[in-house]
Each structure stands twice: as C-alpha cells, then as structure tokens.
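Newbie here. four chains, one complex. Structure please?
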Amino acid sequence: MKKEITIYDIAANVGLSPTTVSRALSNHPRVHVNTRKKILDAAKLLGYQSNIFASSLRKRRSKSIGVIVPKLNSPFQSSVLAGMEKIASQSGYNLVISQSMESLEKEISNTNIMYNSRVDGLLVSKAGTTDNIEHFQSFFNKEIPVLFFDRVPENNHCTGVVINNTQAIYDATAHLIKEGCKRIVHVLGNLQINVYADRLKGYKYALMDHGFVFNAENVISNELDEDLGERIVKKILKLNPRPDGLLVSNDTSAASCLMALKKRGIQVPKDIAIVGFNNDLISRMVEPNLSTINYPSYHMGEVAMKNLINHLGDEQQEILQKTNTITLRSELIIRDSSKRSSYT
Amino acid sequence: MKKEITIYDIAANVGLSPTTVSRALSNHPRVHVNTRKKILDAAKLLGYQSNIFASSLRKRRSKSIGVIVPKLNSPFQSSVLAGMEKIASQSGYNLVISQSMESLEKEISNTNIMYNSRVDGLLVSKAGTTDNIEHFQSFFNKEIPVLFFDRVPENNHCTGVVINNTQAIYDATAHLIKEGCKRIVHVLGNLQINVYADRLKGYKYALMDHGFVFNAENVISNELDEDLGERIVKKILKLNPRPDGLLVSNDTSAASCLMALKKRGIQVPKDIAIVGFNNDLISRMVEPNLSTINYPSYHMGEVAMKNLINHLGDEQQEILQKTNTITLRSELIIRDSSKRSSYT
DNA sequence: ATGAAAGCGCTAACAA
DNA sequence: TTGTTAGCGCTTTCAT
C-alpha cells in the first residue's frame, strides 16, 4: 500500500502549518482567500484524500447513518431505502445498511455493530419478533438519535414515522362493506408488529361501526410471502358461509391470493372482492387490478432521514424526543378487484 | 456526550497494560487465558465499546465494503443487495450503500465518497451513461479491489460477476422462433450497458442461425420502466407486418407491455408471444404468466461479495485480477406467455 | 490570519 | 506472556 498524503505533506509543500491546512480544507472562515487557494491547489496536485478515521476519531462523529430493515429485498423497503439514500447523500451522510431477517437476535447484533461503527444516528424498522427495545439502550445512553419507521415499537418515547394503519384498514373494510361484502377475511402478519396490530383494530372498528359482529375465524395471521395465496385460499374455502371479501396486508400476498382464487375458477370481485396494501407495482399488473392502500414508501424514507439529520446538530435532542410520531398520509385506491356493486 | 471507556480504563482497572488489553480484546493468542477472562469481564463491566475509528486509523482498514448500484428500488438490485448483506455480515463487514441514479456524475461522486470513506473493497453495477472507469483509478492505484456485477465495463482488467446475457437472449429468441414467431421485436435498455449490448448480440445471432434477416426496426432501445408498455405497444402496432414476438429486457416492462396489449384486445401468446427477463415475482403474477430468463440475483450478490472478501486478505490481488469474469448460470423459463405452438 | 502542541483511542514494533 | 513507546492523521484549544 502506497504512502498516504497527509495535511503535513501539504503543509510542507506550501510552507504553512498543518493547522492552517486543516482549516483551509474544512472551509474555516479565518483563512485568507489566497492561502486557501494555494492549499487547495497543492492538495489537488499531491492527490490528497482526507482520512475520515482520523477526522472521526478526533471529532467523534462519523457522518454516517445506520439503517436496519427486516428484509432488503421487499418492494416496500427498497423504496424506503431509496428515499433515505437520496436525502442522506444530499447531506453528506453515508448509509450503512443491514437486515435483521425478521430475527430479534440478528437485530440485536446489527444494532451493536451499528453502535460500534459509531453511526451518528440510527433508523430502524423492527423485526417481527422484537418486543422490547433494550438493545437500543446504548444509543439512548449516549444520546445518539434513534428513529423508527413503519414498524415502530409500542409504548416508548422514540420518534416514529408511520402511516395511520388503523384508519387505512378501517377505510378498506368500510369500502368492502359498502360493496356488499358480508363476510370479510383479514389476512395479516405477525400481530406483535404495531403495523398489523393497528390494522386489526381498524378492521374491528369498521365492522363494529357497520353493525357487523367480529369473528376471530375471519382473521388469519401469517407469514406474508409470495406463496401465501394457496394456503389462505384453501383455508377460506373451508369457511361456511364462504367469505366474499378479502383484506390482505400486502400486495404481493394479495396478488398471490388472487392467482389462487382464479385458478379455482372463483371470480374476483364477483365472488370474492380483494383489497391489498402498499400500492406496489404488482397491484397494477394483475387482473383485475388490485384495490389497495397507497403507502408513500419513498416519501417515508425521505421524511425519516430528514428528521433524523435535522436533529443531529442539536446537542439536546429535545425536539426529536418530543415529536413522538410523524404520520404520513395514505389512502385507499379503489380498483377493479373490489368493485362488486355492479354485481349485487 | 458521555466520556468514552477506553482500553486504558480497562488496563487501569485490571492492573495491566493497554497493549495486553488490546490483545485480549482482539483474541490475540499470546494472552493468558485467565488474563483474557479478567480483561473481558472488566470490559463488560465498564461498558467498553471499541472505537473503530482509532482502530481503523491505526490498522488502515475499515471493515466496510462499498456498494454502488444504479437504483436501490428495483426488484433485481434489492435482491442482489440482500445476498451481499448476508455474506458481508457473516464476515464482519459493514455495507455502505449508495445509488448512482443512472448518472455518471453521481457515480463519480459516490465513488469518491466511498474512497474517502476508506472502504476495504468496492462492488459496482454501473450507471447507464458510464463509458469509462477513470473514476475508479484511485482505487486501482491504492490496490483496493473493485469488483463489478451485472453491469460491468467493457474492455478492462476488472473482475466482473455476470450472467451470459448473449446466450440468455439467444435462447429466448430461438424459443420464440420455434414457437412460430416470424417477426420478433426486442426491447432493451441503454446499449452503452454491456448487459443490453450483449443481449442484442444474442438476438442477432439467434436470428442469423435460424435464417432470419436482422431488421433494425425491430430493436427498440428505451428506458425500461413501468410505463414502457403503452409507448412500446403503440410503436409495434404501427409496424407492418405486425410483430408476433416480443422480447423485453425486464419483467416489469414485459408485464407492462402485456397489460397494454391486453387492453387493446390483442391476445398473448396467440397474437403476440412475450418473453421477459429476470424471473421477478411479477412474471408469475400476471396473466398469462410470463416466460422469462431466470436471473440468480440473490446468488449474484452472494458470489460477488464472497469473491471480494476472499481477496481482501491477499496483499497482491493477483487472483482477483486474473479471474476476469465469473459467469453465473441463468436459464430460460417457459410459461404461457410464449406457448404459441398450440395455436399455429 | 496563522501556528504550536496536545491528544482522540488504538495497535504494532521492539524489548523484556 | 506482558509492557514500553511511538505514531496512525486529524482537529482544537490557546497563543501570537
């Protein structure tokens, strides 16, 4: 490995002190314009590259933000990440990204690595099995801001960027009821996750408000993956009376249910109406197009990152502590998969 | 911010030198078992966290890998990243990720940031407009390994992890010909990118080998996005004779073409057969299911990361330099969107 | 506007 | 097996 060019080399080259070079390089105001120019020129000439380790060691800041997501390869998360990256890079922050694979154990390990990596702030969408936030304690102790997004822990003082999941599913349920559905099955993920717990609430409230009786048989909590469709459809076809409405907590799974239904000759929305969640691309590509909840994922990434970065400067993170929740707008998008009115 | 606990604190606590503490902490063999235990206990007790800046400054290694992709929010890239993250985290490496947004300018900027961040290695899938690799020169000079994946630069000595794009499209084209297609339109991305240039070759070769005449009108180079379908379908419907085969370089765009065709009452595969690329989820969710090329994206991430990390130890990167290309297996998956035989 | 000196926390020679 | 010493490259008082 070649020798590093340091500010000492530049200093020697231009006949000034390392201090002045350092100041010039970091745009300190108290450096004469000509001096700065001379130094910058020399730096370029010598091929100088600042050593961020030395700088970070000294300044105790890394100019990097950690992000922990459950899974990297999901349309939702990758879109959030894209939004985050945009803002971070605009502000000169690096993104250190890791995935918890829905495992609390790995989330803890990731968190520790992030802590050791001295990220200036942490953005987390928690794993399904995470039911406490002890492992972030080291961040809290050192007052390194931690901000949750989408999947936020319950009952705590952390800021979270979320959508109103309860309202979203309330609207979806009410919509299905209005379309004449009599038995609506709700398929969702791990109920330990706020996202799904809230949606279940919205579902219940909507039933209640429309004079329906809640029936636990109509709620299926499951791993939301691509193969969900077959499993779910088998299950719901055994129910009596047969459900005529299906509320699935993500579009991929909803699409998969749609496939499984069509395969059996069950017509959507005539026999069963479907509403998905997220407004992923796939919701516009299947037939019939899926009604869904528009989830502003890219925007969520931007907002979360912006809020985190805005508060990095503050010595005391009061504002971030006090802004407990930022709720983004989401809305029901009605497409053909749930338009039953014409058939009834 | 609270005071840091350092190895000096531990040393003082257990009555040993910082050196021994450092050795114990990094599992150096020449430390007595009891000593190590005492040190580890004290470290835990005091809440010690190693300072990677100091360590990296001293060791001149960051234990982090940079990844630059064109876009974070693509099913393909996020799957590659997931594979990379898995391997990296297993080996104790952090992932610093940024996106070039298909802009050479941003790619250069990202590259410089990665260089300044002192990543131990760099993984790149290049932007569409990148036609040289000068901006990686600083990495080459310092012998920091750079490995390209999927979109690799032409004519250079860098290692790349790729699939055989030429063969893949050759097979797809041959398949369409066998299914009786007489006029096959090939829709692909920016031809400056090896991926698409190679595919065009495969298309031409296949035509040639089957006695077809290549016609430039049948090649459409375009931005491959979700809205592609309408644009493409309008174009091809103007062609005379009307094409009966469509080869689209990613599944999202292929699905979008499929939608646009169906909207106009054109039947797939009877009137026009379609083959996509990537084997994204969406290819299995549209109707008819899309024939496509299975692209082992997750695996590509794993392989690329493994190869990079394997060669980080080596002082001289000879092996990496000499292994010029790693080609992963890809294969044609035939589904309903291209099964025309029964109609002819 | 510029400089001298100290030190961030760690590790690697070298010595014992 | 353990310790001494020096220094990685930078920034930040404090002085001039």
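Moderator note: Chain B has three domains: 7-50, 62-163+297-330, 165-295+332-343. Chain B has a mean pLDDT of 91. Thread marked as resolved.
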